[in-house]
Each structure stands twice: as structure tokens, then as C-alpha cells.
Amino acid sequence: MTNGDNEIAGTLTAQEVERYHHDGYLSPVQATTLKRAADLLAHYNAFKARGEAAADEVLRSKPHLVFPWLYDLVRDPAVTGPVSAILGPNLLAWGSSFFAKPAGDPGFVSWHQDANYWGLEPHEILTAWIAFSPSLRENGCMRVLPGSQAAALDHRDTFAKDNLLTRGQEISVDVDENRAVNITLESGEMSLHHVGIVHGSDPNTSDIPRIGFAIRYIASHVRQTGGRTTATLARGEDTHGHFDLEPRPQSEYDAASLVFRQTALARQHAVLFAGVDNPVAG
Ligand SMILES: O=C(O)CCC(=O)C(=O)O
User: Fold this and answer.
1) Whose CA is nearest to atom 1 of ligand 1?
2) CA of 51 to the centre of ligand 1 (A)
3) d(CA 226, CA 153)
4) Per-residue pLDDT, 174
5) Is the pTM of this model over 0.85?
6) Which atom in ligand 1 lies closest to the alpha carbon of residue 141?
7) What pLDDT shows up at residue 1?
8) Listed residue (202, 203, 231) closest to 218, CA to CA
9) How many angstroms separate the CA atoms of 258 and 264, rounded?
10) Which of 30, 25, 59, 77 is nearest to 211 (CA)?
11) Share of the chain above pLDDT 90, in %
């Protein structure tokens, strides 16, 4: 398979894979060149500048279904190669979300574990969080608790103002923040985090925007426990057929891809959270 960003290794060493399994995350991993990251950010900014009423909602859940440049990133061997070193050769992307904090943005993400919400089994699932802009402590980089993927903790919905998770999901027991590690990234780098790891992030107190694109990858044998939904074939083959496969959008933000995305999300919502708004970003 050719690599979309030729100068990027697109794989992991055995030691890196072992570190991922031990710590529940791996960072940094090169995902794109600096130039490609700048192009991706330019695409993102150009779309935001259009001022579409639904922009934030679309960017939050499965935007790769309406932007060809994101669909291609989801399937890019430079990104899927390292993921595949952990999850195996056959990968689906179950979701994607932007987590964006403009300069000075009060938005934060409470401590949570994704595994609590997604209804996917087994947990051969990880997020590739790709930095479209630098992600630093001062602009609210993601933070993780190494090793915390081993135990499932109780959560509650807070609906807190400024929480970037739609329902303000948070762990309802004490989290020892002294153990947290800052995931700082340069543009074009990514972190990989296990679906069970405790993670969150603080507001952006700087004048540097923090724009991250999170892709939820699953091994192709993973199932949606509550019913059949859709996913994108990201690498290899869909050997199990547990999901209906999502097509590449014909062109940016076209009517057909917008309708397809709405339908896919409606199916996902119906299976996961009947009557609850937007589970995917959480
Ligand atoms: O971007 C952040 O600060 C948090 C991201 C997150 O919660 C996730 O990718 O699951």
C-alpha cells in the first residue's frame, strides 16, 4: 500500500505498540507533513468562514462524510498504518469529530472514558487525534491518565456550560489529576488513545487556536451491541460485515452527502441514545 505522505513512516515499532498497550496511549506519532497539516487547516478555516448555520454540528459528528479531504485523511496510510500496527490489518472508522478551541476559548472536556458511551465490543478501539494546529498546555491540549484504560469508572451527565461534550459527561469519582500527562503535539502529529483511557482537557488560555480532528477506529470484528449502524472502511477489508459501509462524498458539502450523514447519525442515535442529542462527540 502506498503512503499518502511519502516521508512518513506510517507504522510503529514493536516497542511503541507495547508502550501503547501498557499506557493506553501513544504520542506523538507523525500523521502528515507540516505542509499537509497547513492545507488541512486551510480547508477547515475556509469552511468555517462560509458561516453555514449547521457548521458546528457537522464538524462535531462524522464530518468526513461530507468533506472528501477528511474522508481521504481517515483512509490515509500514514494515519491508518500506525493504527493498524495496534488493531490489525482491517480497520473501520466508526466516527470522527473536530475538537476545536479558538484563541481564548473557555471550552473544556471533562474527564471521561469513551468506552462508557459507544456501545462497541470488544474494546479493540482507539482514537487517532490529529493536530491541525499546535496543541499545547496553554491552549488546552488533551490530557490522559496513563494506565487508566484497565478499569471502567462510573460517569454522570452534567450538561455543564462550555463542556465540549454535548452532555457534559464526566467521571463521577475522584480523578487524581497529579497523574495526568499533557499530550502536546505539533501540527501534523497525532496521539493514539485507547477507548477506555481517562482523558480530558482544559480551556484555551492563549491566543493560539487548538484544532484537533479525532478519528474513532475499530478493528473490523468489533460490533455495535445495540443494533446495526454505519462505518467507513479505513484500511484492508471488511471481513465481518457488522456495519453498512459509508461512501466517499462526491464533493464538499453536497446535498447527497449531507443527507447520507444525517441518516447515518440518526441510525447511530437511535441505537445508542434514543432521545438524547449527539452521542458521537463524547
Ligand atoms: O480534544 C479534547 O480535548 C478531548 C478529545 C476527546 O475527548 C476524545 O478524542 O475522545
Assistant:
1) 99
2) 24
3) 21
4) 85
5) yes
6) 3
7) 45
8) 231
9) 10
10) 59
11) 82
Pocket of ligand 1 (CB under 6 A): 99, 109, 114, 127, 129, 142, 199, 201, 212, 214
Cα 185 to middle of ligand 1, angstroms = 13
Q: What is the CATH number of domain 14-272?
A: 2.60.120.620
Q: 8 C-alpha to center of ligand 1: Å?
A: 24
Query: Residues 82-124: pLDDT tens digits?
Result: 999 999 999 999 999 999 999 999 999 999 999 988 999 999 9
Taking all residues of the chain, what is their mean pLDDT, rounded to a whole number?
Answer: 93
Region 166-194: mean pLDDT is 93
The rounded percent of the chain whose pLDDT value lies above 70 is 95
Q: How far apart are CA 278 and CA 137, in angstroms?
A: 28
Domain regions of the chain by residue span = 14-272
Distance 6 CA to ligand 1 centre (A): 28
